Amino acid sequence: MSDVLLVTSRDPFCGISCHSDMLMEAVKQADPTLSIEASAEALNPLAVSVSLARTPPVILLNYHRALHSRWVPEHVEMFKGIGHKIVIIFHDTFGERPPDDLTLRLHDLADAFIVHEPCEGLPKAIYWRQGVPDREVEVRATGHSHRPYIGSIGHDFPWKNYPLLCRTAAEMGWGVLLCVPAMSDERDAELRAENRWLSVQRGLSAEKALLVLRECDATAFTYVCANSGTSAAIRFGIGAWKPVIAFSTCRQHRDLLAD
Prior knowledge:
The chain has 259 residues and is an alpha/beta fold.
């Protein structure tokens, strides 16, 4: 039996799943004797055995409100009642505001409650900043000729402003490199109409994405959103060891602006 049941998405294009993979890798490096079982089925708490003989002693919820919507505080209380330790990594914080009822109840019940930004009203919270990927990889000679390139990474959500990034870069004579989980040919054509030097890299591993971002001259995260939590994508920009352009108006950059 494993030591820890990690309740997480296993979709390779999901940020929570990517975070879980990096977490498991880091734990393995820190303590190879500690075994973790990652399970998407366990996103349904009713699929988790209530037998201590079958369920790992520690249940780790890599908590996202949508993915873990079935894990209500009552389920946390139930598994604690039969002897399990519950660790929650809570991604959906608005740390500058008082916590809502769900956040507060999970915080109060968990044996450890981990957040990625400073948070008001959660005195037990353990503040772990999202890590910056750090791979010792060889940077290849860029295939971009002598034209400067600006890179970015992440899902093509409207609030990430990829069309504006492409247009502005083209006005400066720069190319754009986008690392995305997936993108249709039609969307590729729309963005290429804004910047004829566009390079779209689909479905890269974290290691490969970091490598191609390091070939760029700078990275940009032109987000305009009030989403919860902190941006994971911008950590790849920091890990690329190149200048990072980011909007101060995006609250997902709050923890970096406060540094």
